[in-house]
Structure formats: structure tokens, C-alpha cells
Amino acid sequence: MKNVYDIFKERGFIEQVTDEDMLRELLVKPITCYIGFDPTAKSLHVGSLLPIMSLAHMQREGHRPIVVVGAGTSLVGDPSGRDEIRTVMTREEIDINAESIKKQLSRFIDFTNGKALMLSNADWLVPLKYIDFLRDIGRHFSVNRMLAAESYRQRLESGLSFLEFNYMLLQAYDFWHLYKNYNCLLQMGGNDQWGNILAGADLTRRIDRKIIYGLTFPLITTADGYKMGKTQRGAIWLDSELTSHYEYYQYWVNIDDRDVRRFLSYFTFLPMHEIEELSRLKGEDTRKAKDVLAYEATTICHGQEAADKARRASRQLFSQKGIKDIEAIPTYLMTSEDLGEGVEAYILFKETGLCKTRSEARRLISQGGAYVNGKRVPSFETIVGSDYIQNDIILLRAGKKNYLRVYIQDS
Fold this sequence. Notes:
This protein has helices spanning 4-11, 20-26, 49-60, 91-105, 122-125, 130-136, 143-148, 150-153, 162-165, 167-182, 194-208, 245-253, 260-267, 272-279, 286-302, 304-317, 336-339, 345-351, 358-366, and strands spanning 16-17, 32-37, 64-69, 117-120, 184-190, 213-217, 230-231, 234-235, 331-335, 343-344, 370-372, 375-376, 383-384, 393-398, 402-409.
């Protein structure tokens, strides 16, 4: 069995670690590890994939992952990486989101027969008595050290609420609680969680005189400097109801060439020698590597059947044969009343989200990059009306690859 630490290292997963030599030695034998996930939305997005993949690697190498759904800490709000206070959600809202996230994570991690655990930190945080918590846990924390943490320091100018100030104590308590009750020896997370992870390790050392470990992943941006998972049309969600299989596939197949090797290493289970071979492809052949990335990533997240369908649709869309699997193309709903007697093309491209602004849409059309039903739009003043509807659909294309079907339903 290969040491999972070496897998993380060769794939570029590691940003910081509390003690590299001791952790690598620890991982020779099966251990329990955990990562917390924020349930403030009904779905995780691809920005959460690196932590998810790390848990999958841990399990594949014989370790037991614990997924902590932060229902309790979400009632407070994590200040890390935020410019202002987060709106506090109700327990009911958080529980609904947590249930949805459980289903998504089950695609990556096997929770059967105790191979992995999924816990809600509300189960142990909500019953805490505040005075007892301050006396037993709060006394181990230095305010000076807390304020030195990056997650707090960057918020001091804009304002850090006392509610958020408690977040580090609660997450540290999570780590200690999991150590005490599940023998969890490793917490992992994004590099913005480094201060919180250290706080948990320090709390456990102070209370139980036990060394436990922390490891963080790099915060990923794409080669062109954008945050991972953000596109012009919004976040790329793991839930297929929010991001279709086809859209998910297209996100990966359209990445920057410079990101191919890195993303193959992060988001697939392909052996590194195959990744190195794919990474050596240049020019037009780079598309082959992106196809592999898109297919593997979609298979892991949505299953092989969905990946097969998305790949087939993608190849057909961009082949000389034209479109055959239109069902896989993302859909925008529009009523016949909305369409009325027709909509100017540049407005239609903006309103459906294919262009961010009307100016961008005009530019796209003037440069010959806008198509309706496979035909180039000659002018941004072209009226797209009911005569363009084919089987209740108007098919739009922006550039070479970005398709959208507008489904016209009766008012």
C-alpha cells in the first residue's frame, strides 16, 4: 500500500503540514482523519473538490474519513476569506442544505459499513453550556494569538463580530471532540483554515497532552487568475440540478491549457505516469488531455452514464456532423409571452446569460461569433421571434463552444 502522504505530495495537494516526517510515519498505518464542509448552500461547488478528493484518496489507501457537516459552526459563521459578516442562517435552513450535501459527497466517498462517517457538529456544539465552554475551553486560548491569525487579522479593519470571533474556539473544539470520541488524528482543509487547525491541535495538546496533526491544501486559482469554479455564468455546482452533466463536462474541457497537468493531478485518480504523458501533448492535441480530464471528473462526480452522455454530446456538438444529443445542452426557460413578437439578438444573448452585458453581446455579434439555430447572426438588431422556434427550442451559440437551448413554453 502506497503511503497516502506521498500521493498527496506528488499530486501537489500539500500547502502546509504541522510535522511532515511524523505525519508521514503516522500514515503508514490506517488512521481517522476529517474535513469540515460548510452547509450554507444546497450544493458544494468545484472549489470544494480538492478537499473532497483528498478524503477519497485517504479512503482508497485504507484510512477512515470523517466528513463533518458544519451545521453548528454555520450558526456562527466562518470569517476566513470574507470581507464582511455572513448572514446567519436558521437551523432549519442549514439542516436542509446538509442533507443535500450528504448525497453529493456519497458519490466520492463510501459511507457503507463504517468505512467513512458523516457527522454534524451541531450534535455536540449546540448542547454546550456557554459558561462551562468558556471555563473549560476558552481558558486555553490567547486573544493575542487569535488576533494574529490571518483569518481574523484581515477582518479587523472592516469589522470582526464577537460572534465570528468565537469560530476558532468552536472549530478547535471540533478537532478535540473528534480525537476524544473517534481517535481522529488528522484534520485537513484549505490553507485559509490553517490557524483554526493549529488551534485544534494546540487545544488537544493542552487538554490531553496528545499530538495530533494538520495538513492544508493550496487555495486554487486558474492559470488566468480566477477563483476555482467561478465562471461568467456563475459557480459550477456538484449538484446536477444546478449544473447539468453537460455543463460540468464543458467546464473541464474548456480549462486553460496551462491548468491541464495540475487539474488532472488534483481531480482524477489517473496514475501520474498517464498524467505526465497527457501533459506532454501540445497544440490541438491538448484537447485530448482535456477530454480525458472532463470525462474522468464527470464520471467521479456524476457517474459513468452521465459522463458518457456528456462526452458524446460534446463531441457531436463540435464535429462537422452537427448536434444530435440536444438534451445534454444547458437550458434556459422562456415563455412565449417573454418572446412576444421577437427580441433583438443582442438582448437575447445577454438575458440568457451567454453574454454578461449588452455591450459584450453587440461585440460578439459584430465579430461574427453569435449563432442562432446554427446560422450566424448578421446584425445585433436581428429580431429573434417565433419563426426561429424549432420543436419548442431556439438554439444559441456564443463563439465556437458555448451552446444554450432556449426552451419556449406557453405563457
